[in-house]
Amino acid sequence: MLKFLGCIMILAASTGIGFIYSAKFKKRTRQLEELQRCIYQLQNEIVYTHTPLPEAIEDVSKKSVYPVKEIFEEVSCLLFDNKVNNVHEAFRNVLNRRKDILNLKRDDMNILLDFSKTLGESDIEGQQRIFHLTLENLKKRIKDSEVLMSKNVKMYRYLGFSLGAIIVIILV
């Protein structure tokens, strides 16, 4: 009886680990999509309503979800309090502090950092081009993320179960 319970626990644990690891791929895709939505929203705030940048970023943070919300909240606080020299420095500081809560790759964060380098430093036309470029880059990253997700989610789930089954067979 104890042997049977031990086998069930090993199988459940390894399957659970497979599910946890596969969830990272889903989280990355969701966070990229949320980031894209926030960039669209920021574009509307800046280009069409001419909202000042710190206020626009704060408005975006109020309408977004965790963990992307945290990034925009902290950036707006840094800009309101004048703790940084420019927007790029604010985004760089926040992303370095918050990279542990994000499931984004370094290239994903670089898109946001490149975007922040020119944010608020040109006229409306220039801002629109920057928004367009950033959104195109995010769309590519989302597509790549979806392809990886579709390939790897099932694989890691089955791999977790399979490894658990192998361990159980070896122990029995």
Molecular structure report:
It is a single chain. The protein is mainly alpha-helical. The protein has one domain (2-171). It is built from six helices and no strands. It has helices at 2-48, 53-62, 68-80, 87-98, 106-118, 124-171. It is elongated. The mean pLDDT is 89.
Summary tags:
mainly alpha, elongated, 6 helices, membrane, transmembrane, 172 residues, 0% strand
Domain tally: 1
Q: Major beta sheet, specifics? A: none
Order of helices and strands: HHHHHH
Form type: elongated
**Cα distance spanning the termini:** 13 Å
Record field, number of beta strands: 0
Structural class: mainly alpha
Low-pLDDT residue intervals, each spanning 5 or more residues? none
Mean pLDDT: 89
**What is the beta-strand fraction?**
under 5%
Radius of gyration: 21 Å
Helix amount, in percent? over 70%
